[in-house]
């Protein structure tokens, strides 16, 4: 048993729902009790979808358990087929149905439905949402895709985008345009927008673009093996990664690399003098492995930040994220425990968090600005405007999104100079945020006198520390404590504070 | 059903007479199919805010945890007083003793949250299916942590409870452990927003009814007790189990329509006043002003509602009192009124006031019900969050039902807000002009 307050991922059948909802002409019959239908609102409310997800929940109750839940499943399955006339069915169990062991897949196969029936085995008590999506799409591909003649024109499939994904809708548009510039057509985009009939034609493409390894990697590996289609390994998020992606695609497709950078603004915006205040900002990264890896490169190489910590919640990505952390000289945090992430952020006291909606709330509590880079998603992550993460426009969007929560250049200086102005003070947060600014914890009153085992803050030094604006105070406190510990100093005075400042000057 | 017939009993300007024939004995349509409803765990979202020293520990799966964080639509990031002990492979395979595991989780939890005085172990679908004995666990834990912490259990599982039945199960679990009293007093039963609860207590005090306790109380040590001289009034229509548990303790129920709208609040208060022998002059003196205010406020919203038809999908069991309010005070015509369960002993007085005509349905086959709804093309459809946007996209105006349990809607001062919840979607559709000018 594991105590959980908030979760980064839902159960695996929610992953299957994300695939089913993204597709057209597919229906999911889910053996589940009433209440599991809450998942519908993820799509109709958070993503504002205008259709019910194509799912039938069998809705068994306690009184059915002793008698005939199997028959209930068959009836629901037949009714779903009759009503929705899908091109293919996926069938499976939610966590509770897994316990009663009715074998939905086996039952559905014996029903003689005139369309392909794809059984799903998603172990609810071991795995989570991303696995569920990846496995479901893999099974759909494995059951439906067959070797077919390649298209005359060079073409690629876009693999991985799902319903309820972080900016998947707009990434698809952006990547389609990137490929088009090189004269490469999109054969099928899947699961997002694909029908089962289109899945059978996946093999007509010359290669696959794996957009999101979390949800598409198993299918890409299978297609590489069975259909002879290589797939791209670079995720085109950020300027450097987009350039690498173009190079990789050109090599695989045997075409000339081409990237139209007319609309690319990130490099100039990052180089322009007003951005110097971004230099060395300490950032903490957390999210799904793919987005964190991309964000780390952008943060360091394209924004000039200092990455002080990073991690991911999906264990499937633990290995690459650990390797990445080593490259950045930080320790990787691999956990799905939100409280553990909060403790890590508190300890590192970054100046900016790049995380998920969970970290946004952690940031609110700790008074640290946060920009969202990854699922799990919130209604705010489905903006009305075009806001991709991938490609040229994605880089522009990322620059704006990451800078927005910060106090800006000159304002930062003024706050240092006149921090006691009654209207214009640091506790009010960035002035362009109005009442929604991140606020520091209540004047730090609840904060206990820092008396870590090694060092004690003298009253004068503590007072001096408070004169430092809140958005750098955490860093100053931490640097001073580390400095004192390294120097073998037990008590921190004003002098220690300024010696530490000089020591860490950059 | 034709509209004029259904509108027969609507606002007459003065007092509404009861309908010639109400829905008390109307046939009830029962279909079996997919339900589009929440499970009882959802009640934890408001119960944990209401009971300020309680913690709700769901013993369940990742799905339960995901539901709790998704159901409210937004996450409540003040450290919530609820959590999920997620069952893992080892717990199911019998490799670990579930009772020991639970004790370990509870020990961690109570060590971290010393402010917790009541702990609810909440059963879920998986814990029910593997027959995890939470009653025994609660008993053992109670013995260990008494008197500091009281541990109770109830089920919020989807195989046994629908949405608001979770609150019912929780309150029913509290009844057997309430202290015994012989005192003659009134108990209000049902979780209300604090501001509404205060208004209700104030109205009752002005009527001279001072000895009132509330279940659930905001804190454990609020002295709620029960006995043969307790009379109780329900403020929510979904409390069938709690009703039965209180009767088992010797308390007596005051049947009444539910306190929604001017008429419902007056009828509810009169029933209580009659029980306590309050004279009519005092009753009028106390209620005249708020009644007038409520009527005025409802009348404004009713301008957009009057003459319009409404269709209720089953959700919170509030559907029947709401249909009564909308048809009798706002001039609407009900086409279909469905509820997850219809406890006639509780909603009987509301059914009697609801004029015959609408289809009454209990339970659900959501696909068949959607067919009926599309055929009827109601002016307003009251439904859950999973259906609202899809129906809007088909051109139908909807009111998402969950707002009815998350918004202060009871008693006189909220009557206008309640009507406003229903009129806003209609007004909004009138306001939006998204086509080209020509």
Question: Which key phrases capture this entry?
Answer:
heterodimer, A: 506 residues, alpha/beta, Rossmann fold, 5-stranded parallel β-sheet, 21 helices, 15 strands, globular, B: 438 residues, 6-stranded parallel β-sheet, 4-stranded parallel β-sheet, 18 helices, disordered N terminus
Characterization of the model:
- The complex is a heterodimer of chains A (506) and B (438).
- Chain A is an alpha/beta fold and 506 residues long.
- Chain A contains 21 helices and 15 strands.
- In chain B, helix 10 links the parallel strand 8 and strand 9 (252-253).
- Chain B has helices at residues 3-6, 44-50, 62-71, 89-92, 98-112, 125-129, 134-145, 165-174, 194-206, 240-248, 261-275, 280-305, 319-329, 344-353, 366-376, 385-393, 403-406, 415-431, and strands at 28-32, 54-60, 82-86, 118-123, 150-155, 185-189, 212-215, 230-234, 252-253, 309-312, 333-339, 359-364, 380-383, 398-400.
- The longest helix of chain B is centred in the C-terminal third of the chain and has 26 residues, at 280-305.
- Chain B is built from 18 helices and 14 strands.
- Classes of the chains: A alpha/beta (506), B alpha/beta (438).
- Chains A and B meet through strand 1, helix 2, helix 4, helix 5 and helix 16 of A and helix 3, strand 3, helix 4, helix 5 and helix 6 of B.
- Strand 1 of chain A pairs antiparallel with strand 3 of chain B, so a sheet runs across the interface.
Task: Tell me the total number of β-strands of chain A.
Answer: 15
Helix content of chain B: 40-55%
CATH class of the largest domain in chain A, please?
Answer: Alpha Beta
Which regions of chain B contain 5 or more consecutive residues with pLDDT less than 50?
1-14
Main beta sheet of chain B: strand number and arrangement?
A: 6 strands, parallel
Please indicate the count of domains of chain A.
Answer: 4
- Secondary-structure class of chain A: alpha/beta
Please count the beta strands of chain B (DSSP E, at least 2 residues each). 14
Specify which chain pair forms the largest interface. A-B, 57 and 64 residues
> Kindly, what is the distance between the CA atoms of the first and last residues of chain A, rounded to a whole number of angstroms?
48 Å
How many helices of chain A does DSSP assign? 21
The chain-level mean pLDDT of chain A equals 90
